[in-house]
Amino acid sequence: MWNSPAEFFAMGGYALYVWSSFGAGALVLLLEPLVVRARFKAIVRRLKQEQLAEQFDKESSQ
Amino acid sequence: MNPVNNSSFSNNRLVNWFSLSSPSTFYPVAGKLIPIFWVLTVVFGLAGLWISFFVAPVDAVQGQGYRIIFIHVPVSWMSMFIYLVMAAWAGLGLIFNTRLSAMMAQALAPVGAWMAFLSLWTGAFWGKPMWGAWWVWDARLTSELILLFLYLGFMALQASIDNRRRADKAGAILALVGVVNVPIIYFSVKWWNTLHQGASVSLTKAPAMAQTMLWGMLLMALCLWMYSIAVGLMRVRAIILEREAHTDWVRQLSEVKS
What we know:
Number of helices of chain B: 9
Helix content of chain B: over 70%
Strand content of chain A: under 5%
Number of helices of chain A: 2
Oligomer: heterodimer
């Protein structure tokens, strides 16, 4: 169907429209999981710090 | 009469599905499922993209520009489907007052919003070369825009109420009222004269397109479906930790213990 990579990327003159659509899709599918992972790491870090703080609290009151 | 039989009802099963409705049992199960859904996302995605770009023939009228269909239709399907699933979880939470249901609804809203956004975005980039306009106030486009606003409204409403249970209830009511919009989107091309073309795939008629095109769209839709589950489970795990931060089981988790 495609005779050369250049022809593939040109998309028969519709390159801007086809690649903007698929590019936006790829970007969302890539960024959203990264944002969610950052949110997960942030809450785990907070919980760890809280436990650490409690430990120090206990040790210093003994 | 016989209490032994009663207890065996829920205990003698391979998987006790009722126990999964508790965040503490669901949290580790979700963690194990996430990698499976990522693998499925990649497999279906590669197969779908292969068909979209290398197997499906060029369109007689729209040339290569029609290939936008392989992302536009699947994201539009998912934007409506995720809304129904989200509303169902929200409704379950409203009726049974289960904590996890509300968290699932909250976890799905951003995925659905992104799908609705992509539907409008890819639609604009398809409309411009074919209709000559990025946007028209057509029934299909307008009702899809309302769907995006419903997602954003659901998220904003939940974020604006400090009391968690009240936020869940208010969000659930908004989500359930908004369900009326989904059939409006779906049937808009039948009910009104729109610029937007009719349904690409119908359950009642034979598909009006090449078999390979149908397969490309179905595989891309499956890829997005698996993606939505994977990212939804990831987000629900973060939400569970945020909301259950004060509980003992969260403090006992290996990833939290220092």
